[in-house]
Design goal:
By secondary structure, the protein is α/β, with parallel strands linked by helices. It has 2 domains: 184 residues, Medium-chain alcohol dehydrogenases, catalytic domain (Quinone Oxidoreductase, Chain A, domain 1, Alpha-Beta Complex); 131 residues, Rossmann fold. The chain is built from 11 helices and 20 strands. The strands form 5 sheets. Strands 3, 7, 8, 11, 12, 19 and 20 form a 7-stranded mixed beta sheet that branches. Strands 15-14-13-16-17-18 form a 6-stranded parallel beta sheet, with helices on both faces. Strands 2-1-6 form a 3-stranded antiparallel beta sheet, with no helix packed on it. The longest helix has 14 residues.
Length: 346
């Protein structure tokens, strides 16, 4: 069977090509992809050829935020049937390494993740019309949920996991630095978890407008209103929890200044080296926590979307046909006019 794919060869060398896809074997299903979101990692591959030590060394099909419709199934796939609409979990932990045995599958030593250049050969991604996946990667959705919404389950799962790393958010005052897709979804997760206040900061009004729709009780454009956060920094800080989603040095400094003593900063944004004023961290006894991907949270994220607990539609600011992928990547990289851009597979 023929299928079109979106394959990256080098920086800014993205091609729509035709490939073949076979029949699903035991434990596998054939998925007709309906929607795929462009993630920050996809943008790094496209613009920079990778990020940090991870480099594109061979042509790679990008994409790990996807949903589609089951077209065919192999044997032993449980209750999955042709016609089922599913969100596609991009993670494939091995299930038998030391971390998987401890229930820490997000730290699997042999993790396979769709559209990742971490390993060689690279893991090919989901930006293609049809692909075969393990049945265990499929989470069913109801007819009332669009495939575009279901494709947002992956970034939402990241934020659900980050929320768990923060601890209880009930009645807490929360700051989110960075109003991209992850920041906006962290705001939604915090409100769902019972946060009393959720303040979101960013440099772009368009992104902050989306964050407001996703549950922020206040937004602050720190580029236009440099003093907008001053009151939160008085008397050693105000916020109980900060989700730092920008991975920018000024945002980290702002987070440390605005979090109260014994507060928690969850570092969600990813970068290389980031300066941290250790004296402030120590003096205010701040807990600084990392957060990495998700495991069981993927199924939970699908449920939150499917049951209309969290409405992800506001973050979807653009949808492009597969043949317009280059234009989609250009818009996705422009934060003045986009939050989450998706590809549509007809």
């Amino acid at each position: 069977m023929q299928t079109r794919v979106c394959r990256l060869y080098d920086k800014h060398d993205l091609r729509i090509e035709t490939d073949t896809v076979g029949e699903p074997q035991a434990g596998e299903v054939l998925i007709a992809i309906g929607a795929g979101g462009i993630c920050g990692s996809d943008l790094h591959y496209y613009h920079d050829g990778g990020f940090g030590p991870i480099r594109v060394q061979q042509p790679i099909i990008l994409g790990h935020e996807a949903a589609g419709t089951v077209e065919a199934v192999g044997t032993g796939v449980g209750d999955i049937r042709p016609g089922d609409r599913v969100a596609l979990n991009p993670s494939r932990p091995c299930g038998h390494c030391a971390y998987c045995a401890e229930g820490l599958s997000q730290h699997c030593l042999n993790m396979r993740f769709l559209g990742s250049a971490l390993r060689f050969p690279h893991e090919q991604g989901a930006f293609r019309e049809r692909m075969i996946v393990d049945a265990g990667q499929c989470e069913k959705i109801s007819d009332g949920t669009s495939l575009a919404e279901a494709a947002c389950a992956e970034p939402l799962a990241v934020c659900v996991h980050a929320g768990r790393r923060a601890g209880s958010l009930q009645d807490k005052r929360v700051l989110v630095t960075g109003a991209g897709p992850i920041g906006s979804l962290c705001a939604a997760v915090a409100r769902h978890a019972g946060a009393r206040e959720v303040v979101v900061t960013d440099l772009k009004d368009a992104a902050l407008a989306v964050a407001a729709e996703m549950g922020a009780t206040r937004t602050v454009n720190v580029a236009k209103d440099a003093a907008g956060m001053d009151a939160y920094c008085a008397d050693k800080g105000y916020f109980d929890v900060v989700f730092e989603c920008s991975a920018a040095a000024p945002a980290m400094r702002a987070a440390l200044a605005a979090v109260r003593p014994l507060g928690t900063i969850v570092q969600v944004g990813v970068t290389g080296d980031l300066p941290v004023p250790i004296n402030v961290l120590v003096g205010k006894e701040i807990s600084l926590k990392g957060t990495h991907r998700f495991h069981a949270e993927y199924a939970e994220a699908v449920r939150l979307i499917d049951e209309r607990v969290i409405d992800v539609k506001p973050i979807i600011t653009g949808t492009y046909a597969l043949e317009d992928a280059v234009a989609a990547f250009a818009v996705a990289g422009d934060r003045s006019r986009s939050v989450k851009v998706q590809l549509r597979f007809d």
